Amino acid sequence: MMWFRLRCPCPVKGCENNTGQLLEWVCNTDGRKMYISELGNLSCASGRHTGKIITWKFDCGSRSGPHRSEPFQPPDYEAFTHAMAMALPHMKEAGAAWVHSLISEVERQFRG
User: Fold this and answer.
1) What DSSP line would sit under 22-41, residue for residue?
2) Neighbours of 38 (CB within 10 A)
3) CB of 75 within 8 A of CB of 60?
4) Residue 20 — left, alpha, or beta (φ > 0 → left; ψ -120 to 50 → alpha)?
5) What's the pTM value of the predicted model, to 2 decimals?
6) 10-residue block means of pLDDT along the chain (112 residues)?
7) Other beta carbons less than 10 A from residue 58's beta carbon
């Protein structure tokens, strides 16, 4: 399993921060950098807080749109794949097989 720093737009549907700016995601619990694996897992740098993408909630700092009443929101399949499409050009070292595995696993998670 290979891990890469999670830098992507907000993966929450309808969020104003999902249009292009790469956000540097950190763990809400310990403030450490977040990482993503090709198996669709997220983890903070300490490894203490991990989980499938589908179970994670995201707070990009926006307090409008979907984050208005509850800052932490689950990702949406289309918004997450859009965010990853924007992030992947900056993850050249990941490679095509890693990207294919990630997209396949994320689809499996969201499609059930």
Assistant:
1) PEE-B-TTT-PBEEEETTSE
2) 21
3) no
4) left
5) 0.91
6) 94 92 94 96 96 96 95 94 86 85 94 87
7) 28
